[in-house]
DNA sequence: TCGATCATGTAATTGGTTACATGATTGC
DNA sequence: GCAATCATGTAACCAATTACATGATCGA
Protein backbone atom coordinates (compact mmCIF):
# COMPACT_ATOMS: atom_id res chain seq x y z
CA UNK A 1 0.00 0.00 0.00
CA UNK A 2 1.47 3.35 -0.99
CA UNK A 3 1.79 6.57 0.99
CA UNK A 4 -1.45 7.97 -0.37
CA UNK A 5 -3.58 5.05 0.74
CA UNK A 6 -2.10 5.07 4.23
CA UNK A 7 -2.78 8.79 4.61
CA UNK A 8 -6.34 8.23 3.38
CA UNK A 9 -6.65 5.38 5.89
CA UNK A 10 -5.81 7.67 8.80
CA UNK A 11 -8.22 10.31 7.50
CA UNK A 12 -11.07 7.74 7.41
CA UNK A 13 -11.51 8.19 11.16
CA UNK A 14 -10.97 11.91 11.57
CA UNK A 15 -9.66 15.05 9.85
CA UNK A 16 -6.02 15.84 10.50
CA UNK A 17 -3.23 18.20 9.51
CA UNK A 18 -0.06 16.99 7.80
CA UNK A 19 1.75 17.40 11.08
CA UNK A 20 -0.76 15.25 12.92
CA UNK A 21 -0.58 12.60 10.20
CA UNK A 22 3.18 12.41 10.70
CA UNK A 23 2.59 11.83 14.42
CA UNK A 24 0.00 9.15 13.70
CA UNK A 25 2.82 7.06 12.28
CA UNK A 26 4.97 7.33 15.34
CA UNK A 27 2.94 5.24 17.77
CA UNK A 28 2.04 1.67 16.92
CA UNK A 29 2.48 2.16 13.19
CA UNK A 30 6.13 3.13 13.24
CA UNK A 31 7.66 -0.36 13.48
CA UNK A 32 6.21 -1.51 10.17
CA UNK A 33 5.76 1.70 8.19
CA UNK A 34 6.57 5.40 8.19
CA UNK A 35 6.69 8.61 6.15
CA UNK A 36 8.61 11.87 6.34
CA UNK A 37 7.23 15.38 5.80
CA UNK A 38 8.99 15.40 2.46
CA UNK A 39 6.53 12.82 1.23
CA UNK A 40 3.48 13.67 3.33
CA UNK A 41 2.98 17.29 2.23
CA UNK A 42 3.47 16.73 -1.51
CA UNK A 43 1.16 13.69 -1.29
CA UNK A 44 -1.54 15.73 0.45
CA UNK A 45 -1.24 18.49 -2.17
CA UNK A 46 -1.64 15.98 -4.96
CA UNK A 47 -4.58 14.29 -3.26
CA UNK A 48 -6.36 17.62 -2.94
CA UNK A 49 -5.96 18.24 -6.67
CA UNK A 50 -7.38 14.79 -7.35
CA UNK A 51 -10.37 15.47 -5.12
CA UNK A 52 -9.58 12.73 -2.58
CA UNK A 53 -9.30 15.19 0.29
CA UNK A 54 -10.34 18.72 1.09
CA UNK A 55 -7.99 21.17 2.84
CA UNK A 56 -9.28 23.98 5.02
CA UNK A 57 -6.74 26.64 6.01
CA UNK A 58 -7.32 27.62 9.62
CA UNK A 59 -6.20 31.11 10.66
CA UNK A 60 -5.71 30.88 14.39
CA UNK A 61 -4.94 33.80 16.68
CA UNK A 62 -2.88 31.45 18.85
CA UNK A 63 -0.52 28.95 17.35
CA UNK A 64 0.66 28.59 13.76
CA UNK A 65 -1.79 28.39 10.93
CA UNK A 66 -2.66 24.89 9.87
CA UNK A 67 -4.41 23.09 7.08
CA UNK A 68 -6.93 20.53 8.17
CA UNK A 69 -7.33 17.65 5.74
CA UNK A 70 -10.71 15.98 5.40
CA UNK A 71 -11.34 12.92 3.27
CA UNK A 72 -14.02 13.30 0.57
CA UNK A 73 -16.61 10.73 -0.54
CA UNK A 74 -14.40 10.05 -3.55
CA UNK A 75 -11.41 9.60 -1.23
CA UNK A 76 -13.31 7.06 0.86
CA UNK A 77 -14.27 5.18 -2.27
CA UNK A 78 -10.69 5.07 -3.52
CA UNK A 79 -9.37 3.96 -0.11
CA UNK A 80 -11.87 1.13 0.20
CA UNK A 81 -11.10 -0.08 -3.31
CA UNK A 82 -7.40 -0.15 -2.50
CA UNK A 83 -8.03 -1.96 0.78
CA UNK A 84 -10.07 -4.62 -1.01
CA UNK A 85 -7.37 -5.40 -3.55
CA UNK A 86 -5.70 -8.75 -2.94
CA UNK A 87 -2.09 -8.57 -1.78
CA UNK A 88 0.75 -11.06 -1.65
CA UNK A 89 4.05 -11.45 0.13
CA UNK A 90 6.71 -8.98 -0.96
CA UNK A 91 10.36 -9.99 -0.68
CA UNK A 92 11.80 -8.73 2.55
CA UNK A 93 15.19 -7.01 2.28
CA UNK A 94 17.33 -7.97 5.24
CA UNK A 95 20.51 -6.10 6.12
CA UNK A 96 21.42 -8.95 8.46
CA UNK A 97 21.22 -11.67 5.82
CA UNK A 98 23.03 -9.53 3.27
CA UNK A 99 25.91 -9.13 5.70
CA UNK A 100 25.86 -12.75 6.83
CA UNK A 101 26.00 -13.86 3.21
CA UNK A 102 29.49 -12.34 2.90
CA UNK A 103 30.73 -13.20 6.39
CA UNK A 104 33.42 -15.52 4.99
CA UNK A 105 35.45 -12.37 4.31
CA UNK A 106 35.41 -11.30 7.96
CA UNK A 107 37.57 -12.55 10.85
CA UNK A 108 35.75 -14.84 13.35
CA UNK A 109 35.61 -12.29 16.14
CA UNK A 110 34.41 -9.57 13.75
CA UNK A 111 31.59 -11.89 12.66
CA UNK A 112 30.58 -12.60 16.23
CA UNK A 113 30.68 -8.99 17.41
CA UNK A 114 28.88 -7.73 14.30
CA UNK A 115 26.08 -10.29 14.62
CA UNK A 116 25.83 -9.74 18.34
CA UNK A 117 25.54 -5.97 17.93
CA UNK A 118 22.72 -6.55 15.44
CA UNK A 119 21.01 -8.92 17.85
CA UNK A 120 21.12 -6.26 20.55
CA UNK A 121 19.59 -3.69 18.19
CA UNK A 122 16.69 -6.04 17.47
CA UNK A 123 16.19 -6.65 21.22
CA UNK A 124 16.11 -2.89 21.69
CA UNK A 125 13.28 -2.46 19.18
CA UNK A 126 11.48 -5.41 20.77
CA UNK A 127 11.69 -3.78 24.20
CA UNK A 128 10.44 -0.46 22.84
CA UNK A 129 7.45 -2.26 21.37
CA UNK A 130 6.79 -4.07 24.65
CA UNK A 131 6.87 -0.82 26.60
CA UNK A 132 4.36 0.77 24.17
CA UNK A 133 1.74 -1.76 25.25
CA UNK A 134 -0.43 0.37 27.57
CA UNK A 135 -0.47 3.25 25.10
CA UNK A 136 -1.47 0.98 22.23
CA UNK A 137 -4.07 -0.93 24.22
CA UNK A 138 -5.70 2.39 25.09
CA UNK A 139 -5.89 3.71 21.54
CA UNK A 140 -5.99 0.77 19.14
CA UNK A 141 -9.05 -0.91 17.71
CA UNK A 142 -9.37 -4.68 17.52
CA UNK A 143 -7.34 -5.00 14.32
CA UNK A 144 -4.67 -2.59 15.36
CA UNK A 145 -4.31 -4.71 18.48
CA UNK A 146 -3.86 -7.76 16.25
CA UNK A 147 -1.12 -5.78 14.48
CA UNK A 148 0.55 -5.12 17.80
CA UNK A 149 0.40 -8.75 18.87
CA UNK A 150 1.69 -9.81 15.48
CA UNK A 151 4.56 -7.38 15.96
CA UNK A 152 5.41 -8.75 19.41
CA UNK A 153 5.52 -12.31 18.10
CA UNK A 154 7.48 -11.18 15.06
CA UNK A 155 10.26 -9.69 17.18
CA UNK A 156 10.20 -12.62 19.57
CA UNK A 157 10.69 -15.00 16.61
CA UNK A 158 13.29 -12.78 15.00
CA UNK A 159 15.30 -12.55 18.24
CA UNK A 160 15.27 -16.32 18.62
CA UNK A 161 16.26 -16.80 14.99
CA UNK A 162 19.18 -14.38 15.21
CA UNK A 163 20.23 -15.86 18.57
CA UNK A 164 20.46 -19.27 16.91
CA UNK A 165 22.59 -17.83 14.12
CA UNK A 166 24.83 -16.05 16.64
CA UNK A 167 25.20 -19.32 18.55
CA UNK A 168 26.23 -21.11 15.35
CA UNK A 169 28.81 -18.38 14.73
CA UNK A 170 30.19 -18.81 18.24
CA UNK A 171 31.08 -22.47 17.97
CA UNK A 172 34.00 -22.23 15.58
CA UNK B 1 24.26 -2.48 2.32
CA UNK B 2 23.82 -0.80 -1.05
CA UNK B 3 23.89 -2.28 -4.55
CA UNK B 4 27.54 -1.44 -5.08
CA UNK B 5 28.72 -3.33 -1.99
CA UNK B 6 26.68 -6.39 -2.89
CA UNK B 7 28.11 -6.43 -6.43
CA UNK B 8 31.62 -6.07 -4.99
CA UNK B 9 30.83 -8.91 -2.59
CA UNK B 10 30.00 -11.26 -5.44
CA UNK B 11 33.14 -10.18 -7.31
CA UNK B 12 35.30 -11.03 -4.27
CA UNK B 13 35.14 -14.70 -5.24
CA UNK B 14 35.40 -14.51 -9.00
CA UNK B 15 35.18 -12.18 -12.00
CA UNK B 16 31.75 -11.95 -13.58
CA UNK B 17 29.78 -10.10 -16.24
CA UNK B 18 26.79 -7.92 -15.42
CA UNK B 19 24.57 -10.67 -16.72
CA UNK B 20 26.14 -13.25 -14.44
CA UNK B 21 25.86 -10.90 -11.47
CA UNK B 22 22.13 -10.63 -12.11
CA UNK B 23 21.89 -14.41 -12.05
CA UNK B 24 23.89 -14.60 -8.85
CA UNK B 25 20.97 -12.88 -7.13
CA UNK B 26 18.43 -15.38 -8.31
CA UNK B 27 19.42 -18.42 -6.27
CA UNK B 28 19.64 -18.20 -2.49
CA UNK B 29 20.03 -14.44 -2.44
CA UNK B 30 16.73 -13.58 -4.09
CA UNK B 31 14.44 -13.92 -1.08
CA UNK B 32 16.17 -11.18 0.88
CA UNK B 33 17.67 -8.95 -1.82
CA UNK B 34 17.75 -8.33 -5.57
CA UNK B 35 18.73 -5.96 -8.35
CA UNK B 36 17.61 -5.32 -11.92
CA UNK B 37 19.81 -4.67 -14.96
CA UNK B 38 18.74 -1.06 -14.78
CA UNK B 39 20.73 -0.68 -11.59
CA UNK B 40 23.47 -3.26 -12.16
CA UNK B 41 24.95 -1.85 -15.38
CA UNK B 42 25.03 1.80 -14.31
CA UNK B 43 26.52 0.74 -10.95
CA UNK B 44 29.25 -1.28 -12.70
CA UNK B 45 30.06 1.66 -14.98
CA UNK B 46 30.38 3.98 -12.01
CA UNK B 47 32.50 1.51 -10.09
CA UNK B 48 34.92 1.21 -13.00
CA UNK B 49 35.35 4.98 -13.05
CA UNK B 50 36.05 4.92 -9.33
CA UNK B 51 38.66 2.21 -9.76
CA UNK B 52 36.81 -0.41 -7.69
CA UNK B 53 36.58 -2.84 -10.60
CA UNK B 54 38.25 -3.39 -13.95
CA UNK B 55 36.24 -4.28 -17.06
CA UNK B 56 37.70 -6.34 -19.89
CA UNK B 57 35.72 -6.43 -23.12
CA UNK B 58 35.83 -9.91 -24.55
CA UNK B 59 35.37 -10.29 -28.31
CA UNK B 60 34.18 -13.81 -28.81
CA UNK B 61 33.73 -15.52 -32.14
CA UNK B 62 30.85 -17.50 -30.65
CA UNK B 63 28.27 -15.85 -28.46
CA UNK B 64 27.68 -12.16 -27.76
CA UNK B 65 30.51 -9.93 -26.60
CA UNK B 66 30.73 -9.51 -22.90
CA UNK B 67 32.50 -7.40 -20.33
CA UNK B 68 34.12 -9.30 -17.54
CA UNK B 69 34.28 -7.39 -14.28
CA UNK B 70 37.20 -7.98 -11.94
CA UNK B 71 37.49 -6.43 -8.52
CA UNK B 72 40.62 -4.34 -7.90
CA UNK B 73 42.72 -4.14 -4.72
CA UNK B 74 40.98 -0.82 -4.01
CA UNK B 75 37.61 -2.51 -4.54
CA UNK B 76 38.47 -5.25 -2.06
CA UNK B 77 39.54 -2.67 0.47
CA UNK B 78 36.30 -0.70 0.08
CA UNK B 79 34.18 -3.85 0.32
CA UNK B 80 35.88 -5.06 3.49
CA UNK B 81 35.52 -1.63 5.10
CA UNK B 82 31.80 -1.65 4.30
CA UNK B 83 31.41 -5.19 5.63
CA UNK B 84 33.12 -4.24 8.89
CA UNK B 85 30.80 -1.30 9.56
CA UNK B 86 28.37 -1.97 12.39
CA UNK B 87 24.75 -2.31 11.36
CA UNK B 88 21.47 -2.16 13.22
CA UNK B 89 17.89 -3.27 12.70
CA UNK B 90 16.05 -1.34 10.02
CA UNK B 91 12.30 -1.01 10.30
CA UNK B 92 10.62 -3.72 8.25
CA UNK B 93 7.79 -2.52 6.03
CA UNK B 94 4.96 -5.02 6.07
CA UNK B 95 2.15 -4.93 3.55
CA UNK B 96 0.23 -7.38 5.74
CA UNK B 97 0.34 -5.21 8.86
CA UNK B 98 -0.47 -2.07 6.90
CA UNK B 99 -3.60 -3.74 5.59
CA UNK B 100 -4.53 -5.33 8.90
CA UNK B 101 -4.20 -1.92 10.57
CA UNK B 102 -7.17 -0.66 8.54
CA UNK B 103 -9.20 -3.89 8.55
CA UNK B 104 -12.01 -2.24 10.54
CA UNK B 105 -13.17 -0.74 7.22
CA UNK B 106 -13.59 -4.14 5.60
CA UNK B 107 -16.45 -6.64 5.92
CA UNK B 108 -15.68 -9.76 8.03
CA UNK B 109 -15.51 -12.15 5.11
CA UNK B 110 -13.34 -9.74 3.12
CA UNK B 111 -10.94 -9.60 6.04
CA UNK B 112 -10.75 -13.37 6.27
CA UNK B 113 -10.29 -14.02 2.57
CA UNK B 114 -7.74 -11.23 2.21
CA UNK B 115 -5.65 -12.49 5.14
CA UNK B 116 -5.96 -16.08 4.01
CA UNK B 117 -4.81 -15.24 0.49
CA UNK B 118 -1.78 -13.50 1.97
CA UNK B 119 -1.06 -16.52 4.15
CA UNK B 120 -1.09 -18.76 1.09
CA UNK B 121 1.34 -16.45 -0.72
CA UNK B 122 3.75 -16.68 2.20
CA UNK B 123 3.44 -20.48 2.24
CA UNK B 124 4.24 -20.46 -1.45
CA UNK B 125 7.50 -18.56 -0.93
CA UNK B 126 8.31 -20.87 1.98
CA UNK B 127 7.85 -23.94 -0.23
CA UNK B 128 9.99 -22.44 -2.99
CA UNK B 129 12.75 -21.87 -0.46
CA UNK B 130 12.42 -25.43 0.85
CA UNK B 131 12.69 -26.86 -2.64
CA UNK B 132 15.88 -24.84 -3.31
CA UNK B 133 17.66 -26.77 -0.55
CA UNK B 134 19.77 -29.22 -2.61
CA UNK B 135 20.88 -26.46 -4.96
CA UNK B 136 21.89 -24.18 -2.10
CA UNK B 137 23.61 -26.91 -0.11
CA UNK B 138 25.72 -27.68 -3.16
CA UNK B 139 26.84 -24.11 -3.80
CA UNK B 140 26.73 -22.19 -0.54
CA UNK B 141 29.56 -21.65 1.90
CA UNK B 142 29.09 -22.03 5.64
CA UNK B 143 27.67 -18.54 6.12
CA UNK B 144 25.42 -18.68 3.12
CA UNK B 145 24.05 -21.90 4.58
CA UNK B 146 23.37 -20.04 7.81
CA UNK B 147 21.48 -17.48 5.70
CA UNK B 148 19.41 -20.25 4.19
CA UNK B 149 18.59 -21.82 7.53
CA UNK B 150 17.74 -18.38 8.91
CA UNK B 151 15.41 -17.92 5.95
CA UNK B 152 13.69 -21.26 6.53
CA UNK B 153 13.06 -20.46 10.17
CA UNK B 154 11.97 -16.93 9.26
CA UNK B 155 9.25 -18.21 6.96
CA UNK B 156 8.24 -20.94 9.38
CA UNK B 157 7.80 -18.29 12.10
CA UNK B 158 6.06 -15.89 9.77
CA UNK B 159 3.60 -18.56 8.62
CA UNK B 160 2.77 -19.46 12.22
CA UNK B 161 2.37 -15.80 13.14
CA UNK B 162 0.03 -15.07 10.24
CA UNK B 163 -1.89 -18.29 10.91
CA UNK B 164 -2.55 -17.10 14.45
CA UNK B 165 -3.79 -13.75 13.17
CA UNK B 166 -6.01 -15.47 10.60
CA UNK B 167 -7.40 -17.67 13.37
CA UNK B 168 -8.19 -14.60 15.46
CA UNK B 169 -9.98 -13.09 12.47
CA UNK B 170 -12.02 -16.25 12.03
CA UNK B 171 -13.63 -16.27 15.44
CA UNK B 172 -15.92 -13.31 15.10
C1' DT C 1 15.86 33.30 27.03
C1' DC C 2 16.16 29.00 25.36
C1' DG C 3 14.74 24.59 23.96
C1' DA C 4 10.76 21.93 22.70
C1' DT C 5 6.90 21.52 20.05
C1' DC C 6 3.74 23.13 16.59
C1' DA C 7 3.38 23.84 11.69
C1' DT C 8 4.22 23.89 6.40
C1' DG C 9 6.65 23.44 2.69
C1' DT C 10 10.54 23.01 -1.24
C1' DA C 11 14.90 21.35 -3.51
C1' DA C 12 18.32 18.22 -4.12
C1' DT C 13 19.45 13.77 -4.01
C1' DT C 14 19.14 8.74 -3.64
C1' DG C 15 18.27 4.43 -5.16
C1' DG C 16 15.98 2.05 -7.29
C1' DT C 17 12.23 -0.14 -11.22
C1' DT C 18 10.10 -0.81 -15.82
C1' DA C 19 10.05 -0.37 -20.40
C1' DC C 20 12.54 0.24 -24.35
C1' DA C 21 16.20 -0.92 -27.82
C1' DT C 22 19.29 -4.21 -29.91
C1' DG C 23 21.18 -8.32 -31.49
C1' DA C 24 23.73 -12.90 -31.55
C1' DT C 25 23.61 -17.97 -30.52
C1' DT C 26 21.87 -22.43 -29.26
C1' DG C 27 18.86 -26.22 -29.08
C1' DC C 28 14.61 -28.26 -30.45
C1' DG D 1 12.13 -21.47 -38.10
C1' DC D 2 11.28 -20.26 -33.51
C1' DA D 3 11.76 -19.90 -28.64
C1' DA D 4 14.95 -19.55 -25.00
C1' DT D 5 19.00 -17.80 -23.33
C1' DC D 6 23.01 -14.89 -23.54
C1' DA D 7 24.40 -10.12 -23.38
C1' DT D 8 24.52 -4.84 -22.73
C1' DG D 9 22.73 -0.77 -22.15
C1' DT D 10 19.59 3.74 -21.86
C1' DA D 11 15.50 6.66 -20.76
C1' DA D 12 11.62 7.58 -18.32
C1' DC D 13 9.75 7.27 -14.20
C1' DC D 14 8.80 6.61 -9.16
C1' DA D 15 8.81 6.84 -4.32
C1' DA D 16 11.03 8.14 -1.01
C1' DT D 17 14.67 10.60 2.18
C1' DT D 18 17.51 14.48 3.87
C1' DA D 19 18.57 18.93 4.18
C1' DC D 20 17.08 23.36 3.79
C1' DA D 21 14.03 27.37 4.83
C1' DT D 22 10.81 29.68 7.87
C1' DG D 23 8.48 31.09 11.75
C1' DA D 24 5.17 31.16 15.84
C1' DT D 25 4.13 29.75 20.60
C1' DC D 26 4.72 27.66 25.13
C1' DG D 27 6.71 26.30 29.33
C1' DA D 28 10.68 26.16 32.51
Mean pLDDT rating of chain A: 93
Which geometry of chain A do the CA atoms define? elongated
What would you call the quaternary organization?
homodimer
User: Largest sheet of chain A, if any?
Assistant: 2 strands, antiparallel
Explain what you see:
2 copies of one chain form a homodimer. With 172 residues, the first copy, chain A, is mainly α. Chain A has 2 domains: 3-84, Winged helix-like DNA-binding domain superfamily/Winged helix DNA-binding domain (Arc Repressor Mutant, subunit A, Orthogonal Bundle); 95-170. Helix content of chain A is 67%, strand content 7%. Chain A is built from 8 helices and 2 strands. The first copy, chain A, has helices spanning 3-13, 18-29, 37-49, 73-84, 95-101, 108-131, 133-139, 142-170; strands at residues 53-58, 66-71. A two-stranded antiparallel ribbon of chain A has the order 1-2. In chain A, α1 crosses α4 (73-84), α2 (18-29) crosses α3 (37-49) and α6 (108-131) runs antiparallel to α8 (142-170). Chains A and B meet through α1, α4, α5, α6 and α8 of A and α4, α5, α6 and α8 of B. Chain A binds a DNA duplex (28 and 28 nucleotides) through α3.
Key attributes of the depicted protein:
homodimer; 172 residues; mainly alpha; Arc Repressor Mutant, subunit A; 2 domains; 7% strand; elongated
